Amino acid sequence: LVSLASPAKRPVSTIAVAGVLDLRSQNFSQIIPLKGQWQFFWNQLLDPHLAFSEKGKMADLPGKWTDQKLNGKKYPSFGYATYKLRILLPQRTDPLRIEIPEVYSAYILFINGKTASSNGRVSTRPAGFEPHWERKFVDIASAVDTLDLTLQIANFVHSKGGISKPLLIGK
Length: 171
Hints:
Blueprint: E1 20-22, E2 32-33, E3 36-42, E4 57-61, E5 63-64, E6 69-70, E7 73-74, E8 79-88, E9 96-100, E10 106-111, E11 114-119, E12 136-140, E13 146-155, E14 162-163, E15 168-170
Parallel strand pairs: 1-8
Antiparallel strand pairs: 2-15, 3-4, 3-8, 5-14, 6-7, 8-13, 9-12, 9-15, 10-11, 10-13
């Protein structure tokens, strides 16, 4: 597999607003980081089939949850959360690929309600949790025009929690 972050393809600047990233005007000649405002649900692992009926707090990704505040206090490093983002895509004939960086420290990524990628074992408690760090890739078929991403992350071992690098999308 070839990394999306090759030197020949520099990232395009697009930003998600209020949990939606509109890429319908993009031709994907460059890699696009999935950054901006994702919806955030602290200490909740939302069902990916129901996630988009819920409204969460906005959190900037990439960004560790340990850098954010709730009622004036930073979130603890240990815990779990769900992030979600809707991506609007143009009509196209080329498939796309999403690159998922290392996450602090286990995750499941659902795309349109289906498990697309995972690392380790996500859990609501340390006993069922298993950390794992590995960059992964997910292919997106050309017929898809909307991606509903639900990213569940759990951390019970690292001093940081969340995700510090953006997911990337490109050809």
